Amino acid sequence: MLKGEILLQIKNLIAQSITAAVERAVADNLLKPVDAQPLPTVELEVPPKKEFGDFATNFAMKSAKIFRTSPRKIADAILERIDRKLFDRIEIAGAGFMNFYLKPTVIYDQFRSIFDAGDQYGQLPDKGNRPIQIEYVSANPTGELHVGHGRGAASGSAIINIMRAAGYNVEAEYYINDFGNQMNNLARSVNARYLELLGQTVEFPADGYHGADIIDTARRIIDRDGDKYLALDETERLKIFQDLAYVEKLAGLREDLAAFRVEFDTWFSERTLHPDAINAAVDELRAKGAIYEKDGALWLRSTDYGDDKDRVVIRENGQPTYLAADIAYHKNKFERGFGTLINIWGADHHGYIARVKAAMAAFGFNPDDLKILLLQMVSLYRGGELVKMSKRTGKSITLHELIDEVGTDAARFIFLTRSMDSQLDFDLDLAVKKSSDNPVYYVQYAHARISSIFRQADEVGLKLGAAPKLELLTHSTEIDLINKIAEYEEEIDRAAEEYAPQRIVRYTHDIAALFHSFYRECRIIGVEQSLAEARLALIKVTAHVIRHALGLLGVSAPTSM
Predict the structure, then answer these.
(1) Could you give the angle at which helices 476-486 and 501-521 cross, rounded to 10 degrees?
(2) What local confidence, expressed as pLDDT, does residue 5 receive?
(3) Hey, what CATH topology would domain 439-553 get?
(4) Which of 45, 90, 101, 538 lies deepest, with the highest CB count within 10 Å?
């Protein structure tokens, strides 16, 4: 019965056993429910320490109100009536916690199913959901990506990878903010640098972009076309420079993101919303009574939907606000058939959430189908000191500079060590350290060490057969490693539900630690062949899980270090 079952199914079997025991206890008058309330769901957790069992539940405590008796008595009744075929023993701890210790055969059957699954382990069945869209990064194409964008890029792409592995239908989108004042300022900034480089005196725009990349753009224009644009009317020259700079900046964003292992299914241009889609969205909301006119401007009745004040969507001069474009954009998303929209925004956009949700509610969409994940700041440290500025630009550290200094693997892994809504301190020195203190090095080294073991095994003619005797894996470090491997798919599922790639980071560190303990305690080459093959099977699956998990994080799994 149990052959082929994995962790989630075993947990279901245990939960069913507990529920059946409760029903038998009620039938035998060991437990007497006071009213007809439904019983609470049986929730099982893996205890933090092995001595507390393979699984534990607080069901007796959660159901105490229904039975109007102590959790301890409920646990005793369950213990008396439960079918024990799965369990080596069951213990009651404290006020009524129940700790379950599985029979060894259950563990081996479970691991056999994982071993037989091969590279498919970690890919959960299709959930059959409506498409989910995740929009992230979406930086203005006016300059280089900085480390804050990098954290958002790592988080968004990892969440997408995890959700796809969990069986969700997910698409990734980049919203290109390529309309409005930021694009005009880009053109004016390039124009000023162009004139300066050609020896002219010019006042730099007060709201212009001061980055070194703007100077680089102007210099490339001169290298290619010389001073031919000096003869043009400034309006015409600004239009040309805006187009040239836009193409270059967008290409730079794409290049940096590709180097950071971030890909998008769709790059959506804001320009496509102006003016028709915005006007249509405003007209529809106006027809629904959700927009009114005051002082020559058009206002969204966002207070009707929980916002703290109404918001302008069309200014007195007839120009749309950023909110108007965002309203049209999110309407477009829903109309493309996405069931859930997930946006990853900087924490400074917190106040913007209510107004966008209000507009979606006014259209008749479910505002709860728009989920906003807020991203907190990153602080870089070198030598224990806060690094505030780039040596090259005098401005924020760029993502490109970070990749050059610590590499994509370390940057992504460290960005993902904490939840997005927590501020992150990034130690640049630690990120390049080749020791177990460096979390990404520690995990990657486990994978590289396993690869080395297989190379050594091959040299002595030790091969892994199709049916290793897994029941020979009885050492405590082997059992701990098997149990951690068995948790992997549930960990993926929970990380997907919680949009929490840090769970996978934590898992990779835990399994690497268990592997290193196993490596210290258990030889492979030089022991009896059947045991050696069983241990090869164990580390083969361990390597797959580490490699798969790192892949979800967008981190490589080297075979040598």
Answers:
(1) 160
(2) 36
(3) Isoleucyl-tRNA Synthetase; Domain 1 (1.10.730)
(4) 538
Strands (E), 256-327: 266-269, 291-294, 297-300, 311-314
Cα torsion at 344, 347, 348, 351 (round to 10°)? Answer: 80
Cβ atoms of residues 211 and 165 within 8 Å: no
Ranges of the chain with pLDDT below 50: 1-5
Which tens digits make up the pLDDT trace of 270-314?
A: 999 999 999 999 999 999 999 999 999 999 999 999 999 999 999
Report d(CA 435, CA 271) in Å as an integer: 49
Based on DSSP, count helices (H) and strands (E) in the chain, helices before strands: 20, 14
Q: How far from chain centre, in Å, is Cα 269?
A: 24
In angstroms, rounded to a whole number, what is the distance separating the alpha carbons of residues 159 and 168? Answer: 11
Q: What is the pLDDT of residues 501-540, one digit of tens each?
A: 999 999 999 999 999 999 999 999 999 999 999 999 999 9
DSSP calls for 346-392: EGGGGGGHHHHHHHHHHHT--GGGEEEEEE--EEEEETTEEE-S-TT
Q: How far is CA 106 from CA 3, 91, 174, in A?
A: 8, 18, 46
Query: What pTM value is reported for the model?
Result: 0.88
Q: What is the pLDDT of residue 3?
A: 31
CB proximity list for 531: less than 8 A, separation 6 or greater? 469, 472
Burial of 27-54, coded b for 16+ CB within 10 Å and e otherwise, reads eeebbeeeeeeebeebebebeeeeebbb
